[in-house]
């Protein structure tokens, strides 16, 4: 008897399988989840223990936001296998706020809370953009998402970023990262990649489903043997700590930071549209306008929760979309368990420190597989697009991908444009989305929501037979 595609999202797996599958999602997103509080905490000059609290608060809020998205509350939550994490789209604006003495951390929290409320209000309007996203647009966006993420995976495999920021004599500057591209790190990343590929080829059943987790565990063991993975922070971290709202004081509300963060919220929501459509394709459960509205409201509510619990704006993490494609496990209950694990890590700093000690080179080997799967999903959607009789679709894809690559290959390309536009221009995903929508409307006109849903359903049905 064949299980219907929609049942796969609601499938309840045994706890013995849910725990490692949920932990696999946590490990995939952990590096990205803790990066933003580290960056903002250091920019504000917070004490190490305060930065550690920011990380715990972030993990705790990640868990709450994920549960809101996956379990759902009335009118909120898309109820698909989604993991929520702090968006990098907000880093630039928040660094500017951190540099302004009159704004600071409390002003950042005020702008985050206001942006979350704004997101809740505008989610139904943003969800009505579904007719603008036929398969030629959706496939292009998802392809660019995967290609954009490859930069993250490659840098993880290299050991971080090629340059690091340090403060010398009170002045921040960029310096080469001495750990980047070390042979030991590259070897570990390659080892993880080969283990994952071997398990996918020769593993059976559950072993193949947790191939990424087993690859990360194997890579961590090798990194420990080679002296790359250390446990000093684990030994120093306490076993338990509470995360309470307004730990740093009551939020402050300033008009310009609020408006800036609301713009970031729109960027995040448009990117989320692409993530949700990708998940709909991967899980075989096409999303409609109501589904999109609930998912976008969860982005807004998650951001609002983030401001209350001393952290930052939240969005659906695209690397976990890739993991769903790699494992083939489409049950949302897996990410529910992942959210519960994140909650626990936020309350158990020692366990959080253990997960945080996994080197980026280990995650890099896994990232190359997962992020490539996102790009492959976009390419698969594009196979259902009519390029033979409608050659204009070729131009939609070609030009949109080109614009999406600008922030990747030329990060300073837009540096002379107004600073207020940078949150929009620094996201290759958003640029690709805007250009694809505009070119599709120019060449093909605008369809109805019903037509967009039918096309999305057809693509998903075709994907089931691939």
Automatic annotation (TrEMBL):
Chief location category: membrane
Ranges that cross the membrane: 21-40, 52-73, 80-100, 106-126, 133-154, 180-200, 207-231, 251-279, 334-355, 361-382, 394-414, 420-443
Membrane topology, as annotated: Multi-pass membrane protein
Keywords, alphabetical: Cell membrane, Membrane, Transmembrane, Transmembrane helix, Transport
Cell compartments where the protein resides: Cell membrane
InterPro entries: NCS2, UacT-like, Xan_ur_permease
A Pfam family matched in the record: Xan_ur_permease
Superkingdom of the source species: Bacteria
Family that this chain belongs to: Belongs to the nucleobase:cation symporter-2 (NCS2) (TC 2.A.40) family.
NCBIfam families in the cross-refs: ncs2 (TIGR00801), NCS2_1 (NF037981), pbuX (TIGR03173)
Protein name per Swiss-Prot or TrEMBL: Uric acid transporter UacT
């Amino acid at each position: 008897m064949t299980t219907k595609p929609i049942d796969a999202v609601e499938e309840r797996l045994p706890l013995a399988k849910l725990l490692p599958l949920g932990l696999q999602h946590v490990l995939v997103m952990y590096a990205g989840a803790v990066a933003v509080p580290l960056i903002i905490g250091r920019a504000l000059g917070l004490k190490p223990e305060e930065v550690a609290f920011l990380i715990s608060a972030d993990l705790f809020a990640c868990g709450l936001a994920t549960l809101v998205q996956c379990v759902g509350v009335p009118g909120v939550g898309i109820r698909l296998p989604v993991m929520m994490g702090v968006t990098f789209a907000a880093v630039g604006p928040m660094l500017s706020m951190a540099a302004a003495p009159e704004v600071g951390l409390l002003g950042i929290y005020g702008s985050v809370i206001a942006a979350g409320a704004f997101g809740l209000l505008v989610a139904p309007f943003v969800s009505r953009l579904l007719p603008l996203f036929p398969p030629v647009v959706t496939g292009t966006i998802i392809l660019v998402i995967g290609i954009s993420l490859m930069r993250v995976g490659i840098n993880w495999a290299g050991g971080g970023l090629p340059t690091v920021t340090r403060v010398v004599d009170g002045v921040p500057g960029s310096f080469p990262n001495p750990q980047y591209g070390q042979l030991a790190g590259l070897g570990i990343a390659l080892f993880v990649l080969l283990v994952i590929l071997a398990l996918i080829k020769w593993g059976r059943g559950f072993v193949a489903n947790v191939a990424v987790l087993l690859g990360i565990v194997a890579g961590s063991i090798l990194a420990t043997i080679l002296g790359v993975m250390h446990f000093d922070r684990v030994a120093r971290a306490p076993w338990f700590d509470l995360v309470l709202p307004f730990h740093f004081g009551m939020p402050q509300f300033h008009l310009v930071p609020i408006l800036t963060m609301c713009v970031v919220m729109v960027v995040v929501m448009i990117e989320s549209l692409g993530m949700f459509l990708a998940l709909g394709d991967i899980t075989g459960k096409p999303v409609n306008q109501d589904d999109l509205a609930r998912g976008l409201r969860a982005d807004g509510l998650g951001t609002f929760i983030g401001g209350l619990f001393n952290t930052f704006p939240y969005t659906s993490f695209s690397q976990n979309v890739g993991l769903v494609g790699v494992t083939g496990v489409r049950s949302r209950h897996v990410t529910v368990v992942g959210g519960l694990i994140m909650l626990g890590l936020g309350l158990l700093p020692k366990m959080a420190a253990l997960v945080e000690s996994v080197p980026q080179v280990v995650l890099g080997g896994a990232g190359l597989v997962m992020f490539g799967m996102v790009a492959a999903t976009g390419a698969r959607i594009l196979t259902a697009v009519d390029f033979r009789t409608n050659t204009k679709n070729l131009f939609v894809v070609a030009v949109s991908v080109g614009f999406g690559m600008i922030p990747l290959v030329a990060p300073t390309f837009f540096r002379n444009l107004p600073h207020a536009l940078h949150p929009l221009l620094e996201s290759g995903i958003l640029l690709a989305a805007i250009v694809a929508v505009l070119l599709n409307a120019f060449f093909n006109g605008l369809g109805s929501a019903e037509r967009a849903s039918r096309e999305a359903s057809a693509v998903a049905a075709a994907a089931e037979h691939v």
